[in-house]
Specification:
By secondary structure, the chain is an alpha/beta fold. The chain contains nine helices and eight strands. Pfam families: Kinase-PPPase.
C-alpha cells in the first residue's frame, strides 16, 4: 500500500453489521494498514440500495464485506460485484451453506437474530451496567457479586477488557493495585479462580503512561510514569497475585479480544 493513499472497506448488512465489522477489523489488524478506514451501512432492505452502495465503492476503489441473510440481496451483491469489478466478500453466506450441506437444515432468513431482545440481550445489558458501576474499584462490595474480578496496576487495560467481557454477558469488577492502598477485604473472599491478574512489561507500561501524561497535560517527570515507580508497582502486584493464587496474564502484546478469549476459555 502507498502511504499517502487512503483506502476504504464498505461493510454492508441487512441488520446492524457488527458481525461483518468485527471480521474486517480483525483482518485489518493483521496488516500495517493505518490508512484503511471502514464505512458501515446497516439495515439494507432493497436491491436498489445495494446497487448504489456498489457504485460508490467502485468509484472509491475499495472492496465490500457483507453479511446479508436474504438470498435475493446476496445475489444482487454478487451481480453488482461482477458488473462493476468490485471485490465483495460474503462473510455469512459460506457458513450458512456449510450448515445446510452438513445437516440439511434451512436458515430462517431473518436479519438481526443475533440482536433480538431475548434473555441473552438483557443479561449483556445487566453485565455492562455492572461493569460501569464497579469500574476502577468504585464499589468494592460488588466484588463478591462479580463473575470475574480483574486486578492490575494502572494502564493494564482493566476497564476496556471489563466492558468487552460485559458485552459477552460476564459481570466484571476491576480493581487497581497501588502499593500504598490496602486491597479491600472483599478481594480476599473471592475464590482465586474468579480473579484474573493483568500485568505488563515495564518498558511498555512506561511508554503508555508517558503518553497518558501528555494527553492530560501533566509534566513529563511525574512519578506516575517513572520507571522506578512502575517496577515497584509491578513487584507489588505480582506478589499480591501470587498470594491470591489467581491466573496472571501478561497483556503487553495482546489485543483486548485476545486477552478476553484467554479469560473466557479459563472461565469455561
Amino acid at each position: 500500500m502507498k502511504e499517502e493513499q487512503q483506502y476504504e472497506i464498505t461493510i454492508c448488512s441487512d441488520s446492524v453489521g457488527e458481525t461483518a465489522e468485527a471480521v474486517v477489523r480483525a483482518t485489518i489488524r493483521q496488516f500495517d494498514a493505518h490508512q484503511v478506514r471502514t464505512k458501515r451501512i446497516g439495515h439494507i432492505k432493497t436491491e436498489d440500495e445495494i446497487r448504489t452502495i456498489m457504485e460508490e465503492a467502485a468509484k472509491r476503489g475499495g472492496f465490500v464485506a457483507y453479511t446479508l441473510v436474504q438470498p435475493e440481496l446476496r445475489e444482487m451483491m454478487k451481480e453488482e460485484a461482477v458488473r462493476l469489478g468490485v471485490r465483495a466478500v460474503d462473510i455469512m453466506g459460506p457458513m450458512m451453506q456449510a450448515f445446510i450441506d452438513t445437516w440439511g437444515d434451512a436458515p430462517k432468513r431473518k436479519p438481526g437474530l443475533l440482536h433480538q431482545l431475548d434473555e441473552d440481550y438483557f443479561r449483556r445489558v445487566e453485565a455492562i451496567e455492572f461493569a460501569v458501576k464497579c469500574d476502577d474499584g468504585r464499589d468494592t462490595s460488588a466484588l463478591l457479586k462479580a463473575n470475574l474480578v480483574l486486578i492490575g496496576v494502572s494502564r493494564t487495560s482493566k476497564t476496556p477488557l471489563s466492558i468487552f467481557l460485559a458485552h459477552k454477558g460476564i459481570k466484571v469488577s476491576n480493581l487497581p493495585l497501588v502499593p500504598e492502598v490496602k486491597p479491600p477485604k472483599e478481594l480476599f473472599l473471592v475464590p482465586g479462580n474468579r480473579i484474573v491478574g493483568l500485568t505488563m512489561d515495564a518498558d511498555k507500561l512506561y511508554k503508555i503512561r508517558t503518553e497518558r501524561l501528555k494527553a492530560v497535560g501533566l509534566p513529563f517527570g511525574a512519578k506516575y510514569a517513572a520507571i522506578e515507580r512502575i517496577d515497584e508497582e509491578l513487584r507489588y502486584a505480582q506478589a499480591l497475585m501470587k498470594q491470591l493464587g489467581c491466573l496472571v496474564i501478561n497483556v503487553t502484546d495482546k489485543a483486548i479480544e485476545e486477552t478476553a478469549g484467554i479469560i473466557m476459555g479459563y472461565l469455561n
